[in-house]
């Protein structure tokens, strides 16, 4: 029996097919762009996601040579789709989805801060307010696009929109509902009528059917089967938000186990019983033991996106060489920075190139290169970007520790950035935690395949993930580098505090 996992990311979709032992037989990827019509705005049309999922699923089936009759099921995870896709009664998208990195809902965020007691919001939802959260983006659409607001039937998350296109079923899983923020009751595990009324969001706009991430929610229709290459009737499992599914893909089930999913952004998280919720971080149900355990995570808005920005703006020669040789431009950058000492010889980067999520929750935050001199070369700037991403990870970890969360001395790391041995070493040196890479490096799609196995009965219990996952040797922090980074980290923290008012004035 074979299982398929598909993850809709911010800049691309990846699918894998595995056997019941977790061995990957094939994988496929499709890249796409984010629409940024204004600074701090970020949108995507859902048809891009549907096409990418269907094409990559079809490709992995063909690559693997597996008979379609032997595919037990598929699960899908997705980026945090912010507001969700506003659709009409015919399930047609009314506008692009405001995705997680969209920060336009500044006025709505301020309104909530002034009109809803933070203690009340945190008590019900386990979260506070920021333009990151989907409920503020929904409020923005209401306040700024009344003609669209009149036509809305539902808000559907990215992966649930793809599930609808596969099955004609409208659902949402607990993790996706919780990550919407202000309208989900994290204790009662349902929509909060009280908060919907306070915020002016009709509760009927939210999907009625809330399910576990391992639930079978429907079956592939005849029409979808012709497009995605799966047999009509193949079970489709709910899946969840990409960050906790990636957490699962690294084998994290117990308190103290923590994982950094480092791709376009960073989502660092840990699992616990919910008795200690960190106010500055994000809290919602985990993708296994959904009704019993909470996933707490901190998210930095730009990590791999920093590297991609640098490549696109300053890496033309590496891109050309990469196209000719088949070597990734990022591998070439790694070679350039390998000999630059810790601290980039005096440069500190604030990595807030799209505002920032936790723990500062500041949509007006901006990227800063601080300490640049005529001595510095391009490689210094690139390494400083890498270090800025690591400082942001450390900041979130510290918030978790401050809230009383238990963290083991080893952090598991997954995602595209974890392919860079240089960057993984920087993460270890900056945070002081050992960094252990997951050997398969397939991240969230791997967790999806596992959820598909749970939902279809191919896998009998969540603990089996420990048998699937293989790890590389841990990367130990260099204590001398850690001393250097401790000093630089103090400047990093103070630099933001001293410039945040200027950033807001910009």
Automatic annotation (TrEMBL):
The keyword Disulfide bond does not apply. GO terms for molecular function: kinase activity; phosphotransferase activity, alcohol group as acceptor. The keyword Kinase applies. Keywords: Kinase, Transferase. Residues 2-247 form the Carbohydrate kinase FGGY N-terminal domain. Belongs to the FGGY kinase family. This is Carbohydrate kinase, FGGY. It comes from Thermotoga petrophila (strain ATCC BAA-488 / DSM 13995 / JCM 10881 / RKU-1).
